[in-house]
Amino acid sequence: MASPKSQPRTLHPRLAIIVLSFFSTQPLSSATAAASSSKCTHPPIIFNFGDSNSDTGGLVAGLGYPVFPPNGRTYFRRSTGRLSDGRLVIDFLCQSVKTSFLSPYLDSLGSTFTNGANFAIVGSSTLPKYVPFALNVQVMQFLHFKARSLELKTAGSKDVIDSRGFQEALYMIDIGQNDLADSFAKNLTYAEVVNRIPSVVTEIKNAITAIYGQGGRKFWIHNTGPLGCIPQKLWLVQSKDLDSNGCISTYNDAAKLFNEGLKHLCQEVRSELKDASVVYVDIYSIKYDLIANATRYGFSNPLMACCGYGGPPYNYNINVTCGRTGYRVCDEKSRYVSWDGIHYTEAANSFVASRILSTSFSTPPVAFDSFCQ
Ligand SMILES: *[C@@H]1O[C@H](CO)[C@@H](O)[C@H](O)[C@H]1NC(C)=O
Ligand SMILES: *[C@@H]1O[C@H](CO)[C@@H](O)[C@H](O)[C@H]1NC(C)=O
Ligand SMILES: *[C@@H]1O[C@H](CO)[C@@H](O)[C@H](O)[C@H]1NC(C)=O
């Protein structure tokens, strides 16, 4: 396949984006606490779509692209393909309703898909469409997954999701960060970046509508985090206007505009598809609070990668990224926000997840475990 994407831009560190996501005044224990307090006896089936913020091993399974240690050092104690030292926000959310971590759709060995599937892949964006692994491709993969499951069900298979399972499942989407980052990386002006936002939001609407058309009714949509606080961006961008917390203002402004569009889209979908439940989660505010108030939450160096090269202020170097020859990694006891200069640490992901579970950042304020059956 001579697709331009057979050299996926997702493999380029500038574009391999990111993850966004994550917990609070009891940083290391809150998601766990939420998990154990949940009365969920029948966890929801979950289907997730997105980028590296929620990729639980899809890039590695799909393209064989290696993710080296020290990725995985804190929780799994081996590399699982997650770009973090441990769990991602989606892992904490799954634990909070006592369901297993989602298997990547493309993981053919040892995977079970009885509790759903994860279509998220590192580097994914909404546009361009029809290239691996754009959002619309992930939705097409889901359609295939669903058709195959129902076929197998009809043929007598027991361990596959049935039609009711697909209807009652929770559909999660966390994408958009790479669309913004790609636009900036192409040196588009701020106005040009902003002009592209409505078409990105439209792609997310198309995804929701397509899933709704297949019977899906429950949607959980994450907005995008503060792109301008990512150490990699801070290191890459030469002339930058920094805000009071040391983040790039234009990047964060673009992220906020995208989020306004996404929030509006969620309202629109709620009024057009009356029997759909659409929860919009403000990841941006959670993450920006974590960065601005890092010390209060027990974190340090919120704009510096734990794993990277170069030392302060960002400890990022595109030639020596985490896991590549020459990298340095922070002490296991330290609590950084950024793991590799792009993605968050397990500690930060845990913080974000506990904030998500509080419902204070959700519109409407629906509890995650209300999707338990
Ligand atoms: C963007 O601008 C920078 C600095 O002028 C330059 O080094 C880089 O090659 C440009 N990138 C693209 C994709 O044009
Ligand atoms: C930091 O914490 C203070 C005190 O709780 C709060 O008022 C402020 O909004 C926080 N900053 C951000 C960016 O959320
Ligand atoms: C990265 O490597 C390239 C090619 O060797 C070199 O030209 C560039 O200066 C390096 N950049 C940094 C920041 O070390």
From TrEMBL:
It comes from the Eukaryota. Keywords: Glycoprotein, Hydrolase, Signal. Residues 1-31 form the signal peptide. The keyword Hydrolase applies. It holds the Pfam family Lipase_GDSL. GO terms for molecular function: hydrolase activity, acting on ester bonds. PANTHER family: OS01G0331100 PROTEIN, ZINC FINGER FYVE DOMAIN CONTAINING PROTEIN. Belongs to the 'GDSL' lipolytic enzyme family. This is Uncharacterized protein. The lineage of its organism: Eukaryota, Viridiplantae, Streptophyta, Embryophyta, Tracheophyta.
